[in-house]
Amino acid sequence: MAIKMNQSLKQTQSLMMTPQLQQAIKLLTLTHLEMTNVIAEEMVENPMLEELENGSEADGDSKAKEERLEMQNKEATSDSFQEDGPVGKDEFDWQSYIETYNSTSSTPNMATADHSEEQPNYENIVSKGQTLAEHLEWQLRMEDLGELELEFAIEIIHSINDDGYLSLPFDEIMATTELKRESAEDIWKVVKNLDPVGCGSESLTDCLLSQARIAEERSPLLEKIIRDHLVDLQNKDFEKIAKTLGVEREQVLDTAMLLKNFHPKPGRLISPGEIHYVVPDIYVVNVGGEFVVKVNDDGVPRLKISQLYQKMLAGGGDTKGGKEAQEYVQEKLRNALWLIKSIQNRQRTIYKVSKAIVAQQQDFFKMGPKHLKPMILKDIANEIGMHESTVSRVTTNKYMHTPIGLFELKYFFNTGVGGKNGGMDVSSEVLKLKIKELIANESPKKPLSDQKIAELLSRDDVKIARRTVAKYRETLGVLSSSKRKIK
After folding, report:
1. Are 28 and 144 contained in the same domain?
2. 120-141: per-residue pLDDT in tens?
């Protein structure tokens, strides 16, 4: 019965609270420090939220954490404070939603807030956060693309503006490649399916359709509404949409509300290059030879609903202020419930992704970076039953503290190199280490050429071309053999 109640609550909220839905998605991309700042701000603004006592209790194993999250959710969804009912489905301001796409101003992004004056002076300062183009390129290199296809995909990515849309028509970009139109459009689709989904679109319709097609539950009706009736939606002409599509008005309303999950400016979900202070989101601890994953809950308060405001809701119209006070309390209640649920979802998702990474990369944790296996987003997404874009979002600005050092989650995702023609697949990071080691041990008077390095790697069953060696050597910032030679 409790499971049904939670599912019903989730469905109701997903249909009516745009700011909260955006918050839930953005919480996944926030660093640990940014998330604790957001929670602190919400606790100040929302009197419904209180911190549970005994919040400093020691963390147990992962199962205990899951049980604690479920208990927290149960406390927050008690039958003792039910809502009077959802806001009317046709009260959502569709015009403002669609005009967001046309506006030149950017949507506020919690992931990019400037906390430079508030953040403590941690010593672990990392390099600037990735730009949208860098974030898309990182994912792109895990796709199985040929050289010409990769070049065209990068050309598309570098034609995307900060909002996530192409800055010039696709046909103009296509004129720069030798690919046939069908192949070029296939590459375009690959780019639009990267996280954030919809980046690289030419129009709002194209952007929303890209997001609708990767939804957990695809809705043909929603896709028809996006494709043919965005203007009618903006004008709230639900009767016209229902009549044209041959469905009930109520069904149009229910389906159209799913658009609140989508972002008219997906590019704004990725933070620009700012300095971040590193606090690990995950700890991996060696316990008796087994690597155990623990999510960092330090500084994350355990939240509950205020007893005082529960009494106000239970008191009904007797509360001072009457109906207005009731409406205020119910609004704060919805916001509080959604924040609690979003925090639970963030921590649980990070745990699942991290646990899957550790399971896949056992040799890395036992023997070090030279044993990092090739692994792409799809591998983890398939294992935990989530979309690749969700896994990508979870790995953004997240760090894992391990027995052998601190690593960004993105570090563990690398394409395989050298596996063709019967060779052994190694990750691109391992290949860099091998090339760096060979160059470090070479004779200064007779440095290794790229061809010679390729031959030496082939002895370890890593079969790669000379130009591949040259590409990774340049990535490492190492000069060519002729310039390394000491005469």
Report:
1. no
2. 233 333 444 578 888 898 888 8
Separation CA 397–CA 277 (nearest Å):
10
- Would the pTM of this model clear 0.70, i.e. be above it? no
Residue 354's nearest CA partner among 301, 284, 405 is: 284
SS3 assignment, position 125 = strand
- 3-class state of residue 282 by DSSP: strand
Residue with tokens 């060779």: 423
**The residue to which tokens 């002409």 are assigned:** 237
Q: For residue 476, what are the CA distances in angstroms to 66, 120, 407, 436?
A: 42, 32, 18, 8
Q: Which amino acid is at 64?
A: A
**Same domain membership, residue 45 and residue 20:** yes
Domain span including residue 432? 416-484
Tracing tokens 């979900």 back to the chain, one arrives at: 269
pLDDT digits (tens, 9 = 90+) for 241-257: 999 999 998 998 888 88
Report d(CA 281, CA 287) in Å as an integer. Answer: 19
> Shortest CA distance to 158 belongs to which of 189, 184, 135?
135
Domain shared by 254 and 303, yes or no: no
Contact by Cβ (8 Å): 98, 241 = no
Say which amino acid occupies 217: E
Compute φ and ψ for 195, nearest 5 degrees: -85, 130
CA distances from 7 to 12, 13, 137 (A): 9, 10, 37
167 within domain boundaries: yes
Strand (E) or helix (H) holding 147: helix 147-157
Q: Are residues 301 and 390 in the same domain?
A: yes
Distances (CA, A) of 196 to 165, 189, 234, 434: 11, 13, 24, 33
Cβ atoms 155, 177 nearer than 8 A = yes
Look at the block and give the residue holding tokens 């009912």: 85
Stretches in the chain below the pLDDT threshold 70: 1-25, 53-129, 271-277, 312-322, 416-427, 487
Same domain, 14 and 83: yes
Same domain, 201 and 143: yes
Residues in the chain: 487
**Residues 6+ away with beta carbon under 8 Å from 145:** 153, 187, 190
Parallel, antiparallel or unpaired: strands 399-402 and 282-287: parallel
Quick check: is 110 in a domain?
no
